[in-house]
Amino acid sequence: MNKLDVKTRLAIALGVAFLGIVLLSVFTLFESRASGLVGHQERIKHLVEVANGIVGNYQKLEAEGKLTRAEAQQQAREALRSPRFSKDDYFFIYDFEGRAVMVAGNPKIEGQIMLGKADTRGYKLWDAFVSTAKGPGAGYVEYWFPRAGATESSPKLAYVAAVPGWNWIVGTGVYIDDVSVAMKRKAIQYGLVTLVIIALAGVIGILAARSIVLQLGGEPTMLMAIMRRAANGNLATDFPVNGNQDSVLANLKSMLEGLGKLVRDVGQASSALGTSADMVSDAASQVSEMARSQSDSTSAMAAGVEEMTVAINHIADSANETEAESRRAAKLAEEGGEHMNSAVAMMQSIERTAQMASERVGGLAQRAQQVGSVTAVIKEIADQTNLLALNAAIEAARAGETGRGFAVVADEVRKLAERTASATVEINQMIMTMQQETHSAVEVLGESVPQARQGVALTESTAAVLSEIRAGVLSTLDRIREVASSTREQSLASTSISQQVERIAQAVDETSATMAASAEEARRLEALAQTLQGNVSRFQV
């Protein structure tokens, strides 16, 4: 059935429907015939029952002794001979041996044994009468028998019943050709109706088949073949579409064209995806390698910053020592002033006092030279700090956005180093001035011995000079304190720079790990793209 076209399938379905209609018509005809026979059956059965009642009355007279059996049977025969309920319908009596006892319609056969004889169609109706009477005792018998004066037989229905005691079979019959005529008439009617139905169904079937084929756009077998081919990956649209462009076949072709375009697009996209994934994987690997290199550079920079921090701590220690020396110098200057004030009252021992002052001023010159050496060291440290800050700024610039905070800190360190160098230069200038003045004081004190007379004036002048020295030393002390404070700030800044560099190193390590994971995901994406490309390649478009 699956290989048949739509027209053949509809023809088979209509044929089965037509056969059903014919069978239903035949069944209806037989039911109609049976319904028509019911009236005749009831009528002849009632007549036979009446006849049996008449015979029963004569049997009663015999039993009462009023009549002999022969008389009773004779009177019973005559009683049933005369009644006629239609032209061709009458009563008949046979005995169990098949002998005709009384036949109102054909008295000539009375006395004859009818067993073994048949009607015009070969049916042994008298044998049927006897077997019915002996068997169930009563029943219907249908046979063919000619009407009076006719040569052709007509269908007839008889009802026979046994008469117990006399072994008679009383019956009557009725022609049922009217039922056959009615049956033929209905058969013609049913035939015409059936033909009309068949014709209408045929036309409707043809139109339906044509409509179905037009709606489908072709035979279902062709559609199934195309769909199986598409299920196997062949999306070719090389089949023709005839007629309706809204048919299933036309829509199927449009769908396959759309699927073909989609498959081509997916194939191209998967190929591009594979290429992009490969590029991303390579780029991620390169970035990861660069991140590892940057991590190494950052580690080296962290080590450099650590060294710079150590150097700055040394500078801070030196600045603290210089501050202590300056405090001692200020104290000495203050003591010199006190001595010069006492010199006015001690003019008698001017020579001894002048000698002591000369010695002390000489010691002060030596200390001034020591302070100059310390300031030179501080200046060298400030220059090295400035150089380290410049290198740190260069490394921060290389680090890009990540090293911007580090660059700011490095710039502040450089400014502090410049301020330290500037302050150191000023301190050096002041110390040189102090050395010159100390040298002058030594000369003055050397001349004070022969010039004792002028001791008071020179002492006052020396006191004034010492006051200026004390003020200069105090100023130097303030500058050195500023240097120490700046050095401490520089130490804190270098520590912050070290922490920032450590964070940069951690961020670079995290970036390297992230890029490695990105490379792995890119490789997985490339594998998925290759799988997708393999799945798409099985389609033929």
Task: Tell me what the structure shows.
This protein has helices at 6-63, 69-81, 125-134, 177-216, 220-231, 248-345, 350-399, 404-448, 455-537; strands spanning 91-95, 100-103, 138-146, 153-163, 168-175. It has a five-stranded antiparallel beta sheet with strand order 2-1-5-4-3, sandwiched between helices. The mean pLDDT is 79. It starts with 5 loop residues before the first helix and ends with a helix. It has two domains: 6-201, 2-Layer Sandwich (Beta-Lactamase), CATH 3.30.450.20; 293-497, Helix Hairpins (Orthogonal Bundle), CATH 1.10.287. Strand 1 and strand 2 (100-103) form a beta hairpin. Helix 6 packs antiparallel against helix 9 and helix 8 (404-448) packs antiparallel against helix 9. It has nine helices and five strands. It has 541 residues and is an alpha+beta fold. The radius of gyration is 74 Å and the shape is rod-shaped. Pfam families: MCPsignal (PF00015), sCache_2 (PF17200). Belongs to the methyl-accepting chemotaxis (MCP) protein family. It is found in: Cell membrane.
How many structural units, i.e. domains? 2
Strand content: 5-15%
Instruction: Going across the biggest sheet, name each strand in turn.
Output: 2-1-5-4-3
Kindly identify the CATH topology of the largest domain: Helix Hairpins
H/E topology pattern: HHEEHEEEHHHHHH
Brief descriptors of the model:
541 residues; alpha+beta; Beta-Lactamase; Helix Hairpins; 2 domains; 5-stranded antiparallel β-sheet; 9 helices; 5 strands; 7% strand
Short description:
By secondary structure, this protein is an alpha+beta fold.
